[in-house]
Amino acid sequence: MTSDDSYPILHAEGVTKRYGARTALEDCNLTIPRGRVIGLVGPNGAGKSTLLQLACGLVTPSEGTLRVLGETPAANAAHLAKVGFVAQDTPVYANFSVGDHLKMGARLNPTWDQGLAERRIAQVGLNYKQKAGRLSGGQRAQLALTLAAAKRPELLMFDEPAAALDPLARDGFLRNLVEFVTELNASAILSSRLLGDVERVCNYLIVLCASRVQVAGDVPDLLNTHYRIVAPRGELDHPPAGMEVIRAQHTDRWTTAVVRGDGSRPATWTIKPIHLEGLVLAYMTRAMGVAGQPLMTSSGEVGR
Amino acid sequence: MIWMSWRQFRSQALAGAIALLPVVAYLIITSIDIRRSHDRYEAQCASIGNCAEAMLQFQNDFRTRLLLLAILLAAIPGILGVFWGAPLVSRELEMGTHRLVWNQSVTRRRWLTVKLLLVGFTSIAVAGLASALLTWASSPVDAVSQDRFGALEFDARNIAPVAYAAFAFALGTVIGLLMRRTIPAMAVTLLVFAVMQFVVPAFARPHLMAPETTTREMTLQAFGEVRGFGDDPVVKGVGVPGAWVTDTSALLTADGDPLDKATYRRCATDPPVTAGAGAGTGGIIACLADLKLHVEIAYHPNDRYWTFQWLESALYLLLSGLLAAVGLWRIQRHAT
């Protein structure tokens, strides 16, 4: 599918979404280039679903402007055709069969690719006559993914696609998903509480925490511009120009910190590369404000 | 989108058809009964010559049955609003499937428009069919009774039920969209529609056109039509032939002033015993008739029936259109 590279897949300027008194997303500024698989990571209630629902037009921003593929989300039928969205808990019509769902996709989407849909259904072993209400969580997710993909969108978005799946199904699902995005030559955004999921498949990362975007960028760039520093206690209180301390932990004599910068530092400081998990953890800890709370389990699951 | 709407609606449509079938059958049977009976009384009238009596008897034979049918049919628009209208959007919101269907390549406005048209026109067709059958079945009786403006007669015949169905359906849909919960939306739809069906005939319908007025001398005969006497000098039930009385003034004296309470009470509690009238109402009537009173009556002649049917239908269709517009506006800026 040819795509016009003149506009980013998503461009947000000062986007804020409030539900009554509660602010779900605050002052979000993002420009996401094309051709990426984007991981949107953050704890429950961080604003991931809100951002995705804004991006597919299910909700409208309280403030700010949001453009997806250069247009207001869900502006018209042509724009809807270019964006595929799989909502959290992968809703399907319980009294529709798998076949009915495909028929719905074919009827409601002018860009529908029946061949692709049938291939996928065969691949994941779904029965056309089966009622969607009787599918397992994994099968339902596969059906929802097929529906979103067979309209051949330029941008596919998944809200917690793997949340309902057991580890084995999750692995298969994510592998599938990446195959898909590649086949479609599309961009994809997937949100997850699990860094482990997105780390494997994403090349662009957005960390969302406490209703704000903490950091966003291409994964190699993030890894190149962040590192761990070990410095004598107190010296990092005044970091050199061009270095930002994200999170610092102290012992009696040393300070270990996750920093952002170009790598230049005093000779007495030790520098170490950082894993993506450490980077995400540092930003989340800073966002949550309180140190010492268990934020991420060893498997990479972020709690509150 | 039409396929989709129909696929979602078809089980409800089937349930509706099954429920409607016995009603239709009973209406047809009633129609046959009425026509047979009518022929019998006509024959009686021709051979014996007791035409007025025969027609009164004919009318009485079917009064209760037609009244019950009218009540049943008056409920149909409400039932359609509750079972077809209220769940139309609210169930999608409740089950979360709106997040699936609103991300197909169909705008929400178009999605709602198609659903409104398909299910809305089916509702209209159902109400229209029921109304047409009842109107046809009862026509021989209605021709005799001449009570076209009776609240139940008016509500369940000709075109008004069609407009009620459109309104009830649009009302249910919009309430469902706003409330987002199916069962509460059904309850509120029922409540609002029931209140409308009470308030409009009682308070709005009489004012759809400026009524005609007439003065009726309260003679002995006129007092004979009065349905009971209360504490105040007002009377109810004084009729105008071939018309729908919407308002009757207080009892007025010859110079146009309301009859004072003291005089009225004296007649009511202590009627002078006159020749030919015993105690009780007879005495009251005789006493009041002696006062040379009259009342001002506001009424709509029966030939305005169709004007009223059209006016009230237009009113309900206008409200339906407004509701649909609210729904279409609201769904585009819907927040989950």
Can you describe this structure?
The complex is a heterodimer of chains A (304) and B (336). Chain A is of the alpha/beta class and 304 residues long. Chain A folds into 2 domains: 10-209, 3-Layer(aba) Sandwich (Rossmann fold), CATH 3.40.50.300; 220-288, no CATH class. Chain A has helices at residues 48-55, 77-82, 98-108, 114-123, 137-150, 167-184, 195-201, 219-225, 276-288; strands spanning 10-19, 22-32, 37-41, 63-68, 83-86, 155-159, 187-192, 204-209, 212-218, 226-232, 244-250, 254-260, 270-272. In chain A, the strands form 3 sheets. Chain A has a 6-stranded mixed sheet, with helices on both faces. Chain A has a 4-stranded antiparallel sheet with strand order 11-12-10-13. In chain A, helix 4 (114-123) runs antiparallel to helix 5 (137-150) and helix 5 packs parallel to helix 6 (167-184). The model of chain A is unreliable at 291-304 (pLDDT under 50). The relative contact order of chain B is 0.12. Chain B has 336 residues and is mainly alpha-helical. Chain B is built from 11 helices and 3 strands; from the N terminus they run H-H-H-H-H-H-H-E-H-E-H-H-E-H. In chain B, helix 2 runs parallel beside helix 6 (160-179), helix 6 (160-179) packs parallel to helix 11 and helix 9 runs antiparallel to helix 10 (281-289). A 3-stranded antiparallel sheet of chain B has the order 1-3-2, with no helix packed on it. The chains are: A alpha/beta (304), B mainly alpha (336). Chains A and B meet through helix 2, strand 5, helix 3 and helix 5 of A and helix 1 and helix 3 of B.
